[in-house]
Amino acid sequence: MKFRMSQRRFIELIDPILKYVPTVPRPLTPLSLSSRLMWTFLAITVYLLMSITPLYGVTRATSPYGFTQLTAIIFAYTTGTLAHLGIGPLVISGIILEILVFSKILNIDVNDPMDQARFNALYKLLALAIAFFEAVIAVTTQFTLASPIYAPFVILQLLIATLIIILLDDLISKGWGLGSGISLFILVSIVKTIFWWTFSPVINEFDKLPVGVIPAIFAAISQGFDKLSVIIYGFGRPTIVGFIATIILAGLILYIEMLRVSIPLSITQFRGIKYSLPLRVMYVSVLPIIFTAFTIVLIDYILRGIWFTFNPYNENPWLNWLVCMERIGGTFIPCENSVLYFLTTPPPPNITPQYVIVHILIYVVLCTIFAYLWVNIAGMSAEDQARYIVQARLSIPGFRPSVKIIAKYLEKYINALTLTSGVLAGLIAAIGDLLGVFGGGIGLILLVEIILQYYALAVHEQLFEIYPGLKRIIEGIT
Fold this sequence. Notes:
Elements: H1 2-7, H2 10-13, H3 15-18, H4 33-52, E1 58-61, H5 69-75, H6 88-102, H7 113-141, E2 143-145, H8 151-176, H9 181-199, H10 213-223, H11 228-232, H12 240-258, E3 260-267, E4 274-280, H13 286-310, H14 317-320, E5 325-328, E6 331-334, H15 339-343, H16 353-377, H17 382-391, E7 394-395, H18 403-435, H19 440-466, H20 468-477
Antiparallel strand pairs: 1-2, 3-4, 3-7, 5-6
């Protein structure tokens, strides 16, 4: 008996607790595309309402510590509202658990339905724990309360809001909606940011012009053409250059996303029937780009913490090369040539050639590293693709239908595509930041990628709905 107890896994030990974690059941029968779209739009509506509903008991709210445009996008939060924590607890929980599972610290069989259910419950439970920790920090450092007695109530509001977002994500991923809740909320956050920066009539307190670039153009012309230079390419606001760059880069990303490298295939039983395996030039998916953004945000957060704690007056010459900041107006700007300076997004007002080069290199290196890691983790490596080909009873003309032989053939293509997609993603993200694109360089890549994913998903669902037999054939092959 003792031996059996010692062999029990952690996920089994906490299973009695996991059973009480709220979940959304799967639909009893597959839903039609129109029904799934309805539930998806309902989830978007609920999230948007949360992002404009202020927290009761909070009279003033400041942005979370280490706030940047990038953090607002990948965590999809709105300061001082029910969406103040956004999807941050879910993203952090997912990353932590993925690392634990990948490193075998958390022993979970991903092919076992029971373990999958336990993993999903643990993911939600950890997200709620992270939300509680972040809510306590928000109440103590970011909010001005009407009265101290509101503190527990504000924490409760943030926990309930996080639980609603978790259940919305569960609702979408369980088959009620389309795609992933996290991707959907990131998409909504980016679209909201682009719309706000384009059309917002709210006056910017620094230059006394509307935040939105289009109303700002008309306001600048009416107030005198000398103010027009402020919105052509300025610091700390949406600009005309950024607006034009957003359109051009979005078109470029869309063009690259459409590029394919076709690998010739044939059906093993019928050699005369030709087929092809289209591999995207942008081979990596959304997650490596999110990991890159999260890594930059995390390093930025740590460096700012070091500065506020150990070097707030820039008196330590050893720490100044790592992080050094100057106060300009009401904003802290990184000192030139400190590590934090090269990570700053959007770029600081004092842009140097060194900033441009190092900023681009940071993004390219990180995107490439995460691209290679994701290809091997997510079943996209040459060996994985070869296994799928053999299982589907396909082969490459002139080669035996062997996993090792086909993997060797595909390796040069997939390695090249992984490197190319990582470098392209890093270049576009960094150049987008430098040009001030709306939503940021990484945000624009995520926007195009997620829209294309949803488009492809909607087309597939519609095709399977029209031809239900096709879905059974494809499932039988795979």
